[in-house]
């Protein structure tokens, strides 16, 4: 769903660099397939990690980084993909509830456009998957092994522990400098050797810590996916795929200089564990194939990218598997939608639904096909095709009727909620949309998408003050406190602002001003200084302190002329940026 307000132009420098540090723990998953009758509780880690980064602070840092990531044009803000990843991820978390930790983290899984085979864990339970990895996974168990591995990083608090280790390691070069100063009196060459040796030891300790963290995440991930009922063989299969993809990388760097263990070592370790477990076969759910087809189209929407995707999908249509045919037809529907061929998109979607519902051929051996969230994905896409045709009243009327039925059938699907509300607004029923959205906000207060849609409904109704208040709420939820305050100022000046609305504006303004002062105090104090390093945004250094401060106060990058703009314009939405990516699984780049 497109944001209703202007698009972010830059990362705040501190968050960008904190993210780059957090991503250093991205690592290949370990394949596994086990049903464990008993596994020990995950260990409670020592005081070093707590002193460096408490679980509560770790979550706050993760939320701050995620606010920035959500505005990266490579962030795949696609409801079906996000819902699928969170459905799979929460199945894994539910198998081992203790992975939520003492802070009881709510895990969030998301996808970014990147052809690299990689995934990464941010502080506090946020786990990202590259689209390239999603497409490379051939089974759901392979993908589950990646997510389990990253859950292992989060639950073992490897980022906090690394910061604790860094504080200890910082004393090594200092001690080496003292010894070098003493040795310099008699032998200058020896003094230089002592100093360089101290620095090398500190670096080697960090590399050793990284390799140990990966092994630990492999073992924890193996346990998690096994208990969740996935084939642990999937971890080995994906490691082997990873080994083929990164062979040229890893051959260039000696093992003792790599941040990850050798892939062959990891394969051997997991294979040894698998031999101790009974074999279990798992049939992949249909939603896995549909989501991969969708991700393939969305990964590259350029003309060349869509042409290459079409060729791939047409080859897939010739496969004998019903999974492959249905997902290829679904991918063709998304492809036609991206080309604004709505009739073609609906035709391919109908074909996909017919293939899924078709019974097996007489005499063929076939077990029931698990669907997962496949039906809600198809319902979302059907709405998506219709809502995109807002200039056709008859189509919008059908979309409203279909959206109401889909929401009744899949009440927990957030994507369907947003599409239904969008259909009501575009179909000329903003009052009904307002009532629906207000009901949703009673249950889902932290969804900026609902506030975006509510602002559009108010705009259609001519309620300018309420429109700006809703936009302010959306900005605040996304971390743009200054932009939210600007929207409140516009709401205050609106001619239709009632006494009640003025009171709401005053209350929210006091709350957000206090929040802004608190955030600024944290930045001046200790804050997350342990993660801050120097860097640049979009290849350009910050011009001066004022610019950097303005970006942190207003992460939406809106200049005064853009604040209050209700729809993105060329002037207010041309700021695209790229987030730093994690190192490839099993190697460094």
TrEMBL record:
Signal peptide: 1-32
One cellular component (GO) term of this entry: membrane
GO BP annotations listed: proteolysis involved in protein catabolic process
Peptidase M48 domain sequence ranges: 109-273
Any GO molecular function: metalloendopeptidase activity
Keywords of this entry: Hydrolase, Metal-binding, Metalloprotease, Protease, Signal, Zinc
Keyword Metal-binding (UniProt): yes
Comp. bias (Basic and acidic residues): 540-554
Disordered as annotated region, ranges: 535-589
Entries under Gene3D superfamilies matching the protein: Metalloproteases ('zincins'), catalytic domain, Tetratricopeptide repeat domain
Protein name per Swiss-Prot or TrEMBL: M48 family metalloprotease
Phylogenetic lineage: Bacteria, Pseudomonadati, Pseudomonadota, Betaproteobacteria, Burkholderiales
């Amino acid at each position: 769903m497109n944001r209703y307000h202007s698009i972010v132009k830059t990362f705040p420098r501190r968050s960008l660099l904190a993210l780059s540090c957090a991503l250093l723990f991205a690592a290949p998953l370990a394949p596994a397939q086990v049903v464990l009758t008993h596994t020990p509780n995950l260990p409670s880690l020592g005081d070093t990690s707590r002193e460096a980064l408490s679980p509560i602070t770790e979550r706050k840092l993760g939320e701050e980084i995620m606010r920035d990531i959500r505005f990266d044009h490579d962030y795949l803000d696609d409801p079906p993909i996000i819902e699928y990843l969170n459905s799979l991820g929460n199945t894994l978390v539910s198998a081992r509830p203790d992975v939520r930790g003492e802070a009881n983290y709510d895990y969030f899984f998301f996808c970014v456009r990147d052809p690299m085979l990689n995934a990464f864990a941010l502080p506090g339970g946020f786990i990202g998957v590259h689209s390239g990895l999603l497409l490379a996974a051939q089974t759901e168990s392979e993908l589950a092994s990646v997510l389990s591995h990253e859950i292992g990083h989060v639950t073992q608090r490897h980022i906090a522990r690394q910061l604790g280790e860094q504080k200890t390691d910082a004393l090594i070069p200092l001690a080496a400098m003292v010894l070098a100063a003493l040795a310099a009196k008699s032998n200058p060459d020896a003094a230089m050797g002592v100093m360089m040796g101290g620095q090398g030891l500190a670096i080697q300790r960090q590399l050793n810590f990284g390799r140990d963290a990966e092994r630990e995440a492999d073992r924890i991930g193996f346990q998690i996916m096994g208990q969740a009922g996935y084939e642990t063989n999937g971890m080995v299969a994906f490691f082997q795929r990873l080994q083929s993809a990164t062979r040229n990388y890893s051959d260039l760097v000696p093992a003792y200089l790599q941040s990850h263990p050798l892939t062959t070592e990891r394969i051997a370790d997991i294979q040894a564990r698998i031999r101790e477990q009974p074999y279990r076969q798992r049939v992949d759910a249909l939603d896995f194939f549909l989501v991969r087809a969708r991700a393939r189209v969305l990964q590259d929407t350029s003309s060349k990218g869509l042409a290459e995707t079409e060729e791939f999908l047409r080859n897939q249509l010739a496969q004998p598997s019903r999974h492959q045919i249905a997902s290829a037809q679904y991918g063709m529907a998304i492809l036609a939608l991206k080309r604004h061929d709505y009739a073609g998109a609906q035709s391919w979607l109908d074909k996909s639904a017919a293939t899924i519902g078709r019974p097996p051929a007489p005499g063929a051996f076939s077990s029931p096909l698990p669907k997962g969230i496949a039906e809600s994905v198809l319902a979302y896409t059907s709405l998506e095709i219709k809502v995109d045709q807002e200039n056709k009243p008859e189509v919008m009327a059908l979309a409203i009727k279909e959206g109401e039925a889909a929401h009744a059938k899949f009440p927990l699907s957030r994507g369907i909620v947003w599409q239904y509300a969008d259909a009501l607004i575009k179909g000329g029923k903003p009052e009904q949309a307002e009532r629906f959205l207000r009901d949703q906000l009673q249950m889902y207060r932290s969804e900026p998408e609902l506030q975006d849609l509510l602002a559009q409904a108010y705009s259609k109704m001519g309620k300018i003050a309420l429109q700006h208040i809703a936009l302010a709420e959306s900005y605040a939820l996304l971390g743009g406190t200054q932009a939210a305050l600007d929207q409140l100022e516009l709401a205050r000046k609106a001619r239709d602002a009632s006494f009640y609305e003025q009171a709401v504006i005053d209350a929210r303004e006091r709350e957000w001003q206090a929040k802004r002062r608190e955030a600024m105090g944290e930045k001046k104090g200790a804050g997350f200084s342990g993660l801050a390093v120097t860097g640049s945004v979009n290849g350009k250094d910050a011009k001066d302190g004022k610019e950097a401060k303005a970006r942190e106060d207003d992460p939406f990058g809106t200049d005064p002329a853009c604040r209050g703009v209700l729809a993105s314009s060329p002037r207010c939405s041309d700021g695209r940026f790229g987030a730093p990516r994690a190192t490839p699984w099993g190697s460094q780049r």
